[in-house]
Amino acid sequence: MGTPVDFGHKNYNYYGAYLRKKYDGKRVFKIIVDAGFTCPNRDGSKGYGGCTYCNVDSFTPELSRRLPTMKEQIEQGMERAIKGYAAEKFIIYFQPNTNTYAPVHYLKSMYDEALSINPENVIGLSVGTRPDCIDAEKIALLESYSDRLDVDLEMGMESIYNETLQKINRGCSHEELEKALALANNTKLDICVHTIFGFPWETHEMMLRYADEINRFPQIKFVKLHHLHIVEGSIMGARFKREPFKVFSLEEYTNFLADFIPLLRPDIVIQRMFGLADYDLLIAPNWNLKKSEIQTYIDKTLEKKGVFQGSKYQPLSQFATV
Question: What is the pLDDT of residues 59-72, one digit of tens each?
């Protein structure tokens, strides 16, 4: 069972409380950066067209997509966060596309440039990528920043099933995620994995097994939980328009989370409970609520149901060492 100290008055270990505790109550905001990277599943190295659910614009707020330079994105993002939310400290977040998909010297130049902007108030670097674009040299580069910053390496797990990964044209196997996690074992980096729930061929029971797979890797510190949403400009979006298939309602997704969260290791911090694309791109499911309203609905429902993170967690006798 959680406590106010552990869970910040929620029954799960959530990111906002984690940041407030770590940074002495200061308001910390992530600033999204689009550094112009591509993806091996788009440029022909692994495939073309990308993952079937993906339109990279859906990952980036519209205001950021309009800005031509990284410097402008960061400066204006910080300005909006300060004016709108009284932000005090910042995490630079390389989010769209695959942000380790380049030679190490190029990656270093991009990260260094971003971190040179308002450095006295930047406390973290977060890098989103694919497991098949991580190697020992890139781990070492990211670790080189960890003496002065918190460094979060975010990798897309998406599904634990190779059959699903093949169906969505992921171009990456679950074994490649395991290999990347092995490289990050005993690292100074904070490891985050991203999941997608709601692929129509995966059952409720199949999705609950994601928790067991996440739990067995002690190096995973953060998770981002995401329901499948269908966006314009994606292969899945075109298919959905021709032949619609079942997607989560808000009630159904919240009920799934109520079953999933008790299975999740209690020390793992939940960075996100759901995803929300810009409404100009979103096809389905459209829950017709603001982000804050969705979060409130989920939190209140979980509280009413008496859901506590880790209440059904069963430690394995030995964690995987792969």
Answer: 555 554 556 799 99
